[in-house]
Amino acid sequence: MARLVLALSSLDGLQTLQSCECNKQGEAYIHFWYGSWERTSNLVFAEIIPALESAGVSATGSVEVFNGSLPTARIGFNATALEKATAAIETLVATASGYAHSSGYSHDREYKEQAY
To answer: Please, what are the domains in the chain?
Structure first.
């Protein structure tokens, strides 16, 4: 899980909140912030989930807001697929650098100011 967290954390503006290699249901997951609702949702649903599924990893994703915080993303998958998932995320980060490392939108700065 450390490699996967490291890969995601290399994206500008992404802050990992928590992760687990395997919960009671055999699911590995990671929670993170990535700025605005749009930016976070795009990363989860247009980038990460398709990359995982292309690698043969069945994954779930969600983006929620709790008490006015930054949108919190959650990616989950079967813990037995951790190596495949990690490789897919590492490839995504390496090949989508123009998207993933772009400067933050004005909304992202606004959310960050509200969260602190």
So the answer is: 2-107 (3.30.70.260)
